[in-house]
Amino acid sequence: MKLICNFGITFGLFLVPSSVFATQSSLSSNYQQWYTGSLLSPSGALRQGGVTIEPYISYNRPIDSVDAFGHKGPIYGGTQSIVNTTLVKYGITNHLSVQLHPQFFYKWRSTYGNGGGQPRVGDLPLDFIWRFVDPNESRLIPAVMLQSGISFPTGRYDHLNSDKTNAGGNGNYVFRAALVTQSTYRIAGHALRVRGWANIRKSVRDAEIHGISSYGTSKDFIGHAETGTSGEGGISVEYGINQRWVLACDVARDWSYGSKVKGYNNAVDYVEKKGQGSGAWVVAPAVEYNWSARYGIIAGVSTPFWGRNTTESLSGQVAFDMVF
Hints:
- Keywords: Signal.
- The protein is built from no helices and 21 strands.
- By secondary structure, it is mostly beta strands.
- Strand 14 and strand 15 form a beta hairpin.
């Protein structure tokens, strides 16, 4: 189980939980290194019959908006949110796992109370993880995994009462795919785990839109919308100070094409628009403490340090992880 609470001046929302890779080989003849997983990197496949349950909560508050030229401006009255996400993973075989990732959250605008916010259900990703290359430390061969699935549009995205602040999803079925590698080394008697990953998300069907929606449409709008293709690539390192304590850091680059909207306002005025693409570099240092190979906690921060057409925020996160 993973529980995440956020601390700091401002906070970030995006987190990809990372469970212990259940087939980790030891880097020492005396003990097996224990990991919780870094803040951003995707986790690997479990052993057959293994289960990971990772609920967490995060608080998001934006700091600055960044335009297409990289110029920053402070955000006043931005949308804040509290998000609960639970990653549930099961090992079907020693090389194939399945995971669900339900999300719940509450949003409000800081300038006028809760801004009409209500608890919302987010979209529901379902993924399969296939480890098709097993690691071999002596030959420096990493574990290589393919992750693929669909995000189902379970979150509310149109017929909103006020504005897109209250949206819970995007209304699209979204194909998801990722390639993940994982290597373990020993440096001066200390364990070092390195992950690299690249993922992509693409809509496979657009959404019917009625009224105010997550795409910024008006109350009289009727039409269709599609989220832009997006993705992320990054690398994480986890350095074991000892068996229980681990220093972790992620560096990632995310990107997104603009969403597409087509339809009519007041059933008369035709609307066709495409949003601007965006991108950002993110760094996420953290500290892990593991009671055992099954139980661990991680605390750290995540913040963008460069971007275009994006929102910058600082995320403080604490997570508790259990593997069975």
